What does this fold into?
Amino acid sequence: MSKRRGSGEGSIYEIKATGRWCAAISEQTALGRRRKWLYGKTRREVQEKLTVALRTRQLGLPQSDDRRTVGAYLTEWLATTEATIRPRTFVRYSQYLRIHAIPIIGHIVLSHLGPEHLQQLYANRLQAGLSPTSVAHLHTVMHTALGRAEAWGLTPRNVARLVRPPRAPRREMTALTPEQVGSLLVAARGDRLEALFVVAVTTGMRQGELLALRWANVDLAAATVAVRATLGEKKSGFEFVEPKSARSRRQIALTAIAVAAVRRHRAAQLEERMRAGTSWTDHDLVFASEVGGPLDGSNVLRRSFYPLLRRAGLARVRFHDLRHSAATLMLSRGVPLKIVSEILGHSQISITADTYMHVTPGMQREAAAAVDAALGS
It folds into this structure.
């Protein structure tokens, strides 16, 4: 072998027998110092590898000999992650990685992945028509996946920390006015799922929490419901899973309007059960199909919620906007922010404050007026 070495290049050699190039770098291991060899077809290829290795050593980051690609790693990570996250979250992660990330950067060796690759990925997806919000979600998934690779020592660093994703536009929240809520409740009277909509707009419960609500967790005498599960979707159907956070497990007081609606709903459900006979599958669900099974959230929207909005003369909103409507209504009537946060099951009161900041200016004016009154102004 003949040695060729440029200024600041380190040890770079050409192997005469094969025409390939190699470089040597010294690194510290648990067994002492050793020489690590880097190979390539051209001197430039080896120089690039050597530059990365020297930079990694300078930063005190672990060296990786793992040659697995980004695509192989992300596929493995998805498989090991499936049992630790919610089914819907897993489906969303899979879609972002398999459809958008792996086809673009899956061929890159994981330990060679740089921030420029992610930046190019995001630009590519934006040009392909993916929304800034979706690209921002893709970045979040990549950040999580690469964070685990860093923790496992498969890559010297989580390069997603060095990349700024596109700014996702803030989605404006829609909240029905008290008058609109009134119109909704009038239009819902007599609907098979009237109680579902009444409880939703008066408690702010999430759709999944409502569809997983069991009679065992309803106390009409005390006018309370306890949130203990949420209905999730998976490949084989539906499943009942734990609420998204400890604060999501909560007890909520029902309004008199809600109690009355749930009582009517219970009587109607008992009649449905008698008609169904042996076809009834008993899951103890408050809001069930006509044979006792779980309701499909999408069907609830198409067959019940959207027609209800039309009957009420209201523009189409999301089911989740009933939650926003309940929170806005409570805050505008002076219910303390902390209590509203507990009712909604937010993990932190700051989430409630940030989400409903549009309500606070009026509350601040009322607070100022109360101070004036106290001081005799």
Remarks:
- The beta strands are 2-3, 11-15, 20-29, 32-40, 218-219, 224-227, 230-234, 237-241, 250-253.
